[in-house]
Amino acid sequence: MQQITWDDFEKVELRIGTILEALEFPEARKPAFKLKVDFGGLGVKTSSAQITKHYTLKELPGKQIVGVVNFPKKQIGKFMSEFLVTGFADENGDIVLTAVDKKVPNGSKLI
Fold first, then answer.
1. What is the rounded end-to-end Cα distance, in angstroms, of the chain?
2. For a Cys staple, 49 with which of 11, 39, 43, 85, CB 3.0–4.6 Å?
3. What is the pLDDT of residue 12?
4. Residues 62, 67, 21, 18: what is their CA dihedral angle, to the nearest 10 degrees?
């Protein structure tokens, strides 16, 4: 495992946001949803996430998730991703979202 410095870690903006909307993403190469997430003072940002095995479109709005908000925007087909959704692969390689167990203000930074 490669080690990083504290300065390296401080460069990564891991922030909490609340999913406002989740939509189908039929153009994606692998099954995915489009997410619109409120990051408080950082604004509302969009991304896609390959989370279709563990989540439904109906259950995602209102869920707080952790995202990396300081990557450059990335074009995914006709869709522009503005942050990286974080998660962990389960035993089958399907993604489980990184989340908090208590509500915190949108935009809060992981410290």
1. 22
2. 85
3. 96
4. 30
Q: CA geometry: angle at 44 spanning 42 and 48, to 5°? A: 120
Domain CATH code at residue 56:
2.40.50.140
The predicted structure's pLDDT at residue 77 = 80
List all residues 6 or more positions away from 78 whose beta carbon is below 8 Å from its beta carbon: 27
Listed residue (59, 71, 42) closest to 97, CA to CA: 59
At residue 25, what is the residue type? F
Range of the domain at 50: 6-97
Domain count, the chain: 1
Rounded to whole angstroms, how far apart are CA atoms 82 and 86?
13
- Output the six-digit token pair for 82: 């503005």
**Positions of the chain with pLDDT under 70:** none
State how beta strands 44-49 and 33-38 pair: antiparallel
